[in-house]
Every structure is written in C-alpha cells, then in structure tokens.
Specification:
Elements: H1 2-31, H2 35-44, H3 54-63, H4 70-86, H5 90-106, H6 109-121, H7 137-163
Helix pairs in contact: 1-2, 2-3, 2-4, 4-5, 4-6, 5-7
Keywords: Coated pit, Cytoplasmic vesicle, Endocytosis, Golgi apparatus, Membrane
Subcellular location: Cytoplasmic vesicle, Clathrin-coated vesicle; Golgi apparatus; Membrane, Clathrin-coated pit
Protein name: ENTH domain-containing protein
Length: 178
C-alpha cells in the first residue's frame, strides 16, 4: 500500500509543479518588464523530468550575450538565482544549474564576470547545501546530486577568480579580465 500512496503523491506533486509553472508564465506575461526572458527561464527549468527544449535555452543565451545591456544580463542572473533558491524540486534545480553551467561554457566571458560579481554581492547564489526534495525515496538521491553539482559550479567560479581563465574551455584559453 505505501507504493500506491507514494505514486499518488508523486503524481500530485508533478501536477502541482506544472500548475506552478503555468501560473508563473502567466504572471510574467502580465507583470514582467522581461517577459520573454522570464517565460524562457520557466520553460527551460520546468518541473517535467526531461531535458529542456533548446529554443528556451537559446532565448536565455540571447538575453545574456555580449551585445545586450549589462542590466539585462544582471536581471537574467538574478532570475536564474531566484528560480534556484525558491525551488524544492530536484528537476527544476538541476535544469537551472545546467543552464548556468552551459552559459558559463558557451556564452561570452563577460557573462562569467557578471556571475562572479553577482555571487560576490549575494554570497548564497549557488549555495544548495540545504537543498532537499523529499517528495519520494528517489528524490533524496537526486537532491544529493543537485547539491554536488551546485558545489562543483561554485568551485569552478572560484577557479575563475584565482586562475583568471576558463579551465573547461576547449581550444585557446579564454582569459577573464577580473
């Protein structure tokens, strides 16, 4: 009987997560100055346990490109950080960390500097040490993975600060102007 109850709770949590995502998208359409970006962030980091659609990740990357005003980039970092800090769902947290990781690797070096500066002003950006999704037995393992991945990204940013270059960059070394 516990398996049936756990399955129903899991289904209910998934449905509630989908409703939360839909509500967040609807609110962004009405209240946000950055509605396209907010919608892309929610859709790229939704509660569904499948990879994010590339079109939403591309929309986020377009918003943080070097050609965009720094205020837009700062808003995107803030929105991703807010999404990460408010979730208790492992899939949302993992997708948000993956978007950040890909952005660190694939977007302009100025983005890395913006993330580091944001992290300096708000020490808890990637601090997921207390993250826990207790919706099922499996999610305890997923939560541990999320905490480890966040710690890895935090250490990677620290390496940027110390070494002044991207250690994961393929090809020529990408120097930072920190």
């Amino acid at each position: 009987m516990p398996g049936i109850r756990e399955g129903k709770q899991s289904s209910l949590r998934k449905a509630l997560g989908a409703i939360k995502d839909t509500t967040t998208v609807s609110l962004a359409k009405v209240h946000s100055d950055y509605k396209e970006l907010d919608i892309a962030i929610v859709k790229a980091t939704n509660h569904y346990e499948r990879p994010a659609k590339e079109k939403y990740i591309k929309a986020i990357f377009d918003a943080i490109s070097a050609s965009r005003p720094r205020a837009d980039v700062a808003y995107c970092i803030h929105a991703l950080s807010r999404r990460l800090s408010r979730t208790h769902n492992w899939a949302v947290a993992l997708k948000t960390l993956m978007v950040l990781h890909r952005a660190l690797r694939e977007v302009d070096p100025a983005f890395v500097e913006e993330v580091i500066n944001y992290g300096r002003s708000r020490r808890l950006m990637l601090n997921m040490s207390h993250f826990k999704d207790d919706s099922s037995l499996n999610t305890w393992d997923y939560s541990a993975w999320v905490r480890s991945y966040a710690s890895f990204l935090e250490e990677r940013l620290e390496c940027f600060c110390v070494l002044k270059y991207d250690i994961e960059m393929t090809g020529p070394v990408r120097r930072l102007s920190l």
